[in-house]
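Below is how a single chain appears once it has passed through the pipeline. First comes the sequence as given, then the structure the pipeline wrote out for it. We keep one example in the README because the format questions we get most often are answered faster by looking than by reading.
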Amino acid sequence: MTESVVPVEGGTQASQNARWLAAAVAGAAVGLLGGMIGLGGAEFRLPLLIGVFGFVALQAVIVNKALSLLVVATAIPARLVAVPLSDLTPYWSIVVNLLAGSLIGAYLGATWATRMATRTLYRVLSVLLVLIAVALVGTHVGQVEPAQLSAPVQAIAGVIAGAAIGVVAALMGVAGGELLIPTIVLLYGVNIKIAGSLSLAVSLPTMLVAFARYSRDKSFTVLAANKTFVLAMAAGSVLGTIAGGALLGVVPSSVLVPLLALLLLVSARKVWKHG
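Resulting structure:
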C-alpha cells in the first residue's frame, strides 16, 4: 500500500512543544469523553490522529493501537480494585471463549490493514466509525437483554463474535470494549460491571496479537518517529479517562451518548473524504 511520509518530531523546539501539548490535551479530552460513558475513547481519538495531527490511515491505526494498549494496561489495576479478581474467577470460561475467536480476528484484521490500499482503509475506517456510533447508541440508550442459548450454540456464537470484534479492534486500533461489553451481556447474561472487567481481560491479549502483527510492517516506524508525541497523548488519555470515570453519570447518558454518536458520524464523513 502507498503511504505518505510519516509525521516526524522535528522543527523548532517551540513547534515540537506545541505539538506535544496539543497531543496531551487531545488525549485528555478524548479520555474524558470516553470515561464519562465507561470507555477508553479510542474510537474518538482515531479521527483526531488523521484529521488534526496528519497521520495517514495505517499509521493512525498503529498509533491508536499503541495508545489503547497503554490505556488498557493502566486501567486493569484500577479495575481490579473496583472488581476483585475473586469476583471474576467464575467467568474465566467466557474470556477463553471470546479469545478463541478474537486472537485470530486480531491477526487477520491487522494483516488486512497492512495490505489494503490507503484509500480503501480510509473507507473501511469510516464505515466502522458508523458501526461504533450505532453500537454506542444501542448499548447505552437501548436495553441489552441476554439471549437464551444452549451451551454449544453459545460457545460457537462466542467464537464468531470474538473473531468479528478482533478484526474491528485491529483495523481501528481500539481495545474493543464498546463491542465486547454488550456482547458479554447479550451472550452470557453477565451484569455490566463484571462485563467491563471481562472485556479488559479479552482486550489486552487481543491487542497484543494485533500489535505484534503490525510490528512486522514498515508503517510501525511511526512510533519510533513520534515517541514523545505518543507518550504525551498517552498521558493525557490516561488522566482524561480517570477524570471521565469520576464524572461517570454526571451527564445523563440520554444526552451525552447521542452527542458522541453524532460526533462519530461527523468524524466518519471526514475520514471518508480523506480517501
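Residues 13-274 form one domain.

See the next section for the split statistics.
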